[in-house]
Amino acid sequence: MSKALLTAEATLEVPFQDIDAMQVAWHGNYLRYFETARTTLLRSIDYDYPQMLASNYLWPIIEAHLRFIKPLRYGQRIQVSAELVEWENRMKIDYTILDAGSGDRHTKGYTIQCALDMRTQELQLVSPGALRDRLKAYL
User: Fold this and answer.
1) Do residues 11 and 55 make contact, with C-beta atoms less than 8 angstroms apart?
2) CATH 3.40.50.150 fits 6-138, yes or no
């Protein structure tokens, strides 16, 4: 695992509407939990989605990976961490979902996002200055 440049955490409670017929959180909802932590991470460097749009770059997710270790249940309080581990050519963010009380690990995974120039629709092979400038304080 790479060394994280930035980390952020979000505490959530698994809501009723996220539970499936097997009485556990439906697997598709885990990416929403990741998104909450990713948003917290990006806000910490003032590069949330409105700032991305203002910089004329889109950052689509091009890859996502999840490993389910233990199911999440209704009302469970969870701690979702996001760690920025790559940023030069793309953003790779690692995630961990822990039970907020016991610290037991339930899920881990990552997402990869690449910059896309809004004007030309060209994929950027190097992360644009809009991201690199915001990360200078952490390098």
Assistant:
1) no
2) no
Contact 34, 109 (CB under 8 A): yes
Tally Cβ neighbours within 10 Å of residue 125. Answer: 9
pTM score above 0.90: yes
DSSP 48-92: SHHHHHHTTEE--EEEEEEEE-S---TT-EEEEEEEEEE-SSSEE
Each residue of 30-51: pLDDT tens digit?
999 999 999 999 999 999 999 9
Rounded Cα distance, 24 and 97, in Å? 15
Residues in the chain: 139
Question: Strand 91-99 to strand 77-86: parallel, antiparallel, or no bridges (unpaired)?
Answer: antiparallel
Output the six-digit token pair for 102: 């016991």
Q: Do 7 and 41 form a contact (C-beta atoms < 8 A)?
A: yes
